[in-house]
Amino acid sequence: MPTITRIGTTQRWSDVVIHNGTLYVVEVPATDEADIHQQTREVLSSLQRLLEANGSGVDKILMANIYLKDIGDIAAFNALWDQWIPTGTAPVRACVQARLAHEGYKVEVQLTAAV
């Protein structure tokens, strides 16, 4: 069985898990009182850093699950997402409205990427 690599592991979660050439990561915003634009920029920036630090990249994202506190924020989120994803590399994606774990969160993103 291939090795499972866990990075930034706590009792409750790992920041990144890599298994069999696939990276799994979830990110939330750093500033919970910020608007959807700032929170999205924070999440995408952090995701890019985590992907690149672990042998992957934005162009290697296979699947994205996007959770928005208010689905009305989808246009604002998409405007930043569309700039972030390199042309021709869009992953499979779902975007849903969800009740997030922290009241101030407006966005949470879960990615699966090739390493």
TrEMBL record:
Residues annotated as transmembrane: none
* InterPro entries given in the database record: RutC-like_sf, YjgF/YER057c/UK114, YoaB-like
Domain of life of the source: Bacteria
For this protein, the record's Pfam families field holds:
Ribonuc_L-PSP (PF01042)
Q: What is this protein called?
A: RidA family protein
Q: According to the entry, what is the taxonomic lineage of the organism? A: Bacteria, Pseudomonadati, Pseudomonadota, Gammaproteobacteria, Aeromonadales
